[in-house]
Amino acid sequence: xxxxxxxxxxxxxxxxxxxxxxxxxxxxxxxxxxxxxxxxxxxxxxxxxxxxxxxxxxxxxxxxxxxxxxxxxxxxxxxxxxxxxxxxxxxxxxxxxxxxxxxxxxxxxxxxxxxxxxxxxxxxxxxxxxxxxxxxxxxxxxxxxxxxxxxxxxxxxxxxxxxxxxxxxxxxxxxxxxxxxxxxxxxxxxxxxxxxxxxxxxxxxxxxxxxxxxxxxxxxxxxxxxxxxxxxxxxxxxxxxxxxxxxxxxxxxxxxxxxxxxxxxxxxxxxxxxxxxxxxxxxxxxxxxxxxxxxxxxxxxxxxxxxxxxxxxxxxxxxxxxxxxxxxxxxxxxxxxxxxxxxxxxxxxxxxxxxxxxxxxxxxxxxxxxxxxxxxxxxxxxxxxxxxxxxxxxxxxxxxxxxxxxxxxxxxxxxxxxxxxxxxxxxxxxxxxxxxxxxxxxxxxxxxxxxxxxxxxxxxxxx
Length: 463
What we know:
Oligomer: single chain
Strand content: 15-25%
Radius of gyration: 24 Å
Largest sheet: 8 strands, mixed
């Protein structure tokens, strides 16, 4: 969790790891007045514009997010401290004083939430027009308030699920992954996508517009003491798969270069080299995935050490071509695609209905002909026999049996992605600046302890 310190007083006294308001309360006399006067002078023009229009700042009009030099310096706060300090936060209304940081931030957050709500009400369909989703979100600086808000949201999403542990899924595609360490200090949005939802969750970003649905069969009794049935159990009858992920939508931008799908560790701590255990696990898992999918995978540990904080750094990656998915359905323009919640198991190209060579060739043809008018559906289930997302474990691995992967990904989730990469024969690394991201689904099991995650993301309800 990140709190707010006082930049103007930083050189004169040691700032404790508390919030801005705590520091101001403890300052007396002229020091307190100086801090308030400095902040009021800085915030006044921004606050005036916000009050007049009641919209978030727009980069096209010269507005920009508050940088480190524009705001009080940040200071770390332990998560436990947030519980007591969160209760001091004000309700999100447009009232407040003329210029204190707390009221300014409250107005900014309230205005942004109103705009997000208006978008959701105006666009109930899973695929909406581009103009409605024109995005002017400015990534926020982490604070004690928004840390607690995000942590509370994930707890609520977990409590509302049918099983414990459950699979936590969020759409992280609206904001691309950070390219540098400094960018990671700003919050990305992540929208909840419930397991076995009665409706597909929307996915909206500048490159793709569509929906996502994650189906999971009824778990073992030890994970389902209430005996709650899966609402999609009819789909898993006489099938060995544990789960199935479905994506449907239209490309807003055509892929450039090669199209890849798989897993990327976007939030991982790359300051240290990978462990011996991680090397052993990858040596077993990568060949297994290649055997199951029937495609070659690109695998990289990611740039390590100080270079990991630069734009020329590569993230931990295991991906393959689009033929790595198990089903592809193309719906031509003017036709209505089958809903993700329906039985689509007999439609389109299916790996289990074709030879590996035929399937690869057919999917490659689809990839080469991708347009922005047709609706595409991609389904993944083949690897689910070996990935138990409820228990955070690889299962059924030859000679290894079951093995938890939590130590491999540390305190961060995995991101299942679809992106295109500009081809460069002189540099085969998958660098962020050469990617065009279409899908980015963040996933983890609720049995994992991820205390740092709310300091990177603003977790929001289902679209």
